[in-house]
Amino acid sequence: MSFPPPFYRWRPHPWHGLEVGPKPPEIVTAYIEITPFDAVKYETDKVSGYIRVDRPQRSSAQPPTLYGFIPRTYCARRVAELAPEADRGDGDPLDICVVSERPIARADVLMNARVVGGLQMIDGGEADDKIIAVLDNDLFWGDVEDVDGLPEKMVERLEHYFSTYKMVPGREAPTTISRTYDRAHAFEVIEASIADYQEEFEG
């Protein structure tokens, strides 16, 4: 039996087996791990590629948007160089937050996401940027070109969530948001993460 290309006999690994996107760095593939309805932190298992339960969310806050990563990206030396306060990259794929007008209540899905900006987050000295994007064909947000086209309060919620989502009562939060940046800088971060991935995994 023949199958049309591309056909995968087995499920491809979401980090290593999928494409970066149809038009990177402007339009990228987002693999979604967590939705705004999840009270548990899910994370892709780096060996198997399946979704693993990482931890219950400690606080009552839930992610304001869909949250996942861009395949075939890696946060290492080049990404860290774009974050002056970071000592190194976090060694993970580049995270992405995707805004959608219609509720999407399931994870382990792929979508085309149009990049509009990002958050420069530092987590324990590591660069852990969060790219901000909109669902590419979204009927409500589809015309947004840059992060300043999103409501200020929406971006504020993202900043607050990532500033506090690892916070433990009585301890200083390990994460800080250095700044919110526009899509031009987001493009630089994505291109740096693609180059870091190629160096690390493709020789």
Tally of individual helices: 3
What composes the largest sheet?
5 strands, mixed, barrel
Overall, the morphology is globular
CATH C-level name = Alpha Beta
Label the CATH architecture: Alpha-Beta Complex
Task: Give an overview of the whole structure.
The longest helix has 19 residues, at 183-201. It is globular and about 60 Å long. It is built from three helices and ten strands, in the order E-E-E-E-H-E-E-E-E-E-H-E-H. It has helices at residues 77-81, 152-164, 183-201; strands at 27-34, 40-44, 51-56, 66-69, 88-89, 95-99, 109-123, 126-127, 130-135, 175-182. The relative contact order is 0.19. Strands 1-4-6-9-7 form a five-stranded mixed beta barrel. Helix content is 18%, strand content 30%. With 203 residues, it is α+β, with helices and mostly antiparallel strands. It has a single domain, classed as Inorganic Pyrophosphatase (Alpha-Beta Complex), CATH 3.90.80. The mean pLDDT is 93.
What are its keywords?
alpha+beta; single chain; two-stranded antiparallel ribbon; 30% strand; 203 residues
Condensed summary:
The chain is α+β, with helices and mostly antiparallel strands and 203 residues long. It is 18% helix and 30% strand.
Strand and helix layout:
Elements: E1 27-34, E2 40-44, E3 51-56, E4 66-69, H1 77-81, E5 88-89, E6 95-99, E7 109-123, E8 126-127, E9 130-135, H2 152-164, E10 175-182, H3 183-201
Parallel strand pairs: 5-8, 6-9
Antiparallel strand pairs: 1-4, 1-7, 2-3, 4-6, 7-8, 7-9, 7-10
